[in-house]
Amino acid sequence: MALRDQFVRRWRLLRAFEEGGDYEAGELLKVLAREEEPGAERPWSLRTLQRDLSHLVQAGFPLEGVRKGRKMRYRLSAAFSVSVPEPLRPSEWAALYYALSVLRKAPGNPFREEPVIGSLREQTRLRRVGEALARAIEEGRPVRLLAARPGEPRRRWWRVDPYFLGFEGGSCYLLGRDAERGAIEVWPLQAVETVRAGRGAFQLPLGLDLEGALAERLRRAGGAGWSVRLRFKKGASLAGVAAFLAEAFGAAQRTGGRGDGELTVRTSDLLGLRRWLVGFGPEAEVLAPRELRMAVAQDLEAALGRYKKSGRRPEG
Predict the structure, then answer these.
(1) Across the chain, what does the average pLDDT equal?
(2) Do residues 128 and 216 share a domain?
(3) Are residues 235 and 216 part of one domain?
(4) CA Rg, the chain, in Å?
(5) 79: domain range?
(6) Three-point CA angle 265, 267, 272, nearest 5°
(7) What is the torsional sign of CA 82, 85, 88, 92?
(8) Which of 295, 298, 231, 296 is nearest to 265 (CA)?
């Protein structure tokens, strides 16, 4: 029930915000209390409200804080509201996402699938990365990228002249010139963590077929990549996992003995695979390569450290 209560509270807050205007904390608590079910034990606390607002922002719903006098008032960014696909509203979009997520996890129904839907926060990050690169391309400005290139498990900073954003094989890619090597390279957008505008300007090479150059470099990279061995706990839908891996990362197949839960996938997007695997927690294990195994272990240890550091039990 706690998860349902959290969603219902945040959905009610979104529904209030999308009506327009701004609210201070006390008014939002009244909104929650007004729509509470009869017989509720107590009204929601200010701390619970603040956590709900923080989670809405982390999920990709940009809230703006406006100080009026001594009070902080909150509202939903108007630019975001108009960006939600018609005919949906933000609260309807959130409700559909929640319902689909529940259906995909609920046992005994034909919609059950492995948890492969990206979070709203990840979708928002990708949108911001794409918009920043599109502006740089339009203005002819170089950028600095915090990103991992195909075949590399770790990110680092790159100085890049961004030439072109293209969509190939279900993924979006940046074609640009690596300033350090002076060579034209390709970066998957999913592997780009941060984009920072650089100084100066650049000129596109005369006569360069941007779409052709992107397709050619992706074709060359198709035969490269890493062979990744994974093991999933008993009960996982290996057929569904293998199908998703093949679609999102590269050729995948079941290996090992019958029922041991082992899969092998060949991919050049180690960073994207690493992020996806962390979502399985203890249900998945990287067997090889060692670099990816250590990177996933570090991600999980860092997450555990954050929970230990808080030292508090969550409310709601």
Answers:
(1) 76
(2) yes
(3) no
(4) 23
(5) 2-104
(6) 105
(7) negative
(8) 231
Return the CATH number at 143: 2.30.30.520
Residue 144, strand partner residues: 159, 196
Q: Are 42 and 54 in contact (CB under 8 A)?
A: no
Question: pLDDT for 52-110, tens place per residue?
Answer: 887 777 666 777 777 777 777 888 777 766 666 667 777 776 777 666 666 655 555 55
What SS3 class is residue 263? strand
State pLDDT tens for residues 216-231: 777 766 555 678 899 9
Are residue 269 and residue 187 in the same domain, yes or no? no
Structure tokens at 178: 């690596």
Quick check: 114 and 244 in contact, CB under 8 A?
yes
Residues 196 and 236 in one domain: no
What total of structural domains would you count in the chain? 3
Q: Tokens standing for 133?
A: 């690169």
E strand map for the chain:
23-24, 63-68, 71-76, 143-147, 156-168, 171-178, 183-188, 192-197, 226-232, 252-255, 262-267, 284-288
Tokens of 105: 């996890």
